[in-house]
Amino acid sequence: MDTLIALEHLSLYDLSEEHKLPFFEGACLPPKLRSIYIVSVGISTPVTEWVLQHMNSLSKLSIGGYDDIVNTLLNERLLPISIVSLTITHLSKMKSFEGIGLQHLSSLEKLRFRCISRLEYLTEATLPSALKSLKIENYER
């Protein structure tokens, strides 16, 4: 991955849990990444070691498929303040959103929850003040 210095968009979708990927170790992600789409992908490196918070070019992130990874991102300050658009998708266990992981995102304008079947509680205090658009889609209860 570190040789792809011009890479701006990375999409990983629906990869088998049997083949866990060792991505995000240290600073191996290309520095010019502007968008990352990761849904239903087994990654062996703990989310706390992905070093996303240092990726100043990252403006769009879509993540989902694993409740534990998303919960850690939402409860800790692991995302870069450059994020403008965040989509959280395909979670089966998430019932509430109470974390502090988004409050510091001064650039976050668009937040989208998609295909989260158990979401019952969302508090305004956990959302950043710059937020202009909040969408909850395909919500089934």
Give structural notes.
Helix content is 6%, strand content 27%. The protein is mainly beta and 141 residues long. The protein has one domain. The strands form two sheets. It has a six-stranded parallel beta sheet, with helices on one face. The protein has a two-stranded parallel sheet with strand order 5-7. Helix 1 links the parallel strand 3 and strand 4. The longest helix has 9 residues. It starts with 8 loop residues before the first strand and ends with a strand. The relative contact order is 0.15.
SSE order and pairing:
Blueprint: E1 9-13, E2 35-39, E3 60-64, H1 67-75, E4 85-91, E5 96-97, E6 110-116, E7 121-122, E8 133-137
Residues in β-strands, percent: 25-35%
Secondary-structure element order, as H and E?
Answer: EEEHEEEEE
The total beta strand count reads: 8
Tell me, briefly, the overall form: globular
Strand order of the largest sheet: 1-2-3-4-6-8
Number of domains: 1
Residue share in helices? Answer: under 10%
How many individual helices? 1
Q: In terms of structural class, how would the helical and strand content be classed?
A: mainly beta
Keywords:
six-stranded parallel sheet; two-stranded parallel ribbon; single chain; 27% strand; mainly beta; 141 residues
Summarize the structure.
This protein is 6% helix and 27% strand.
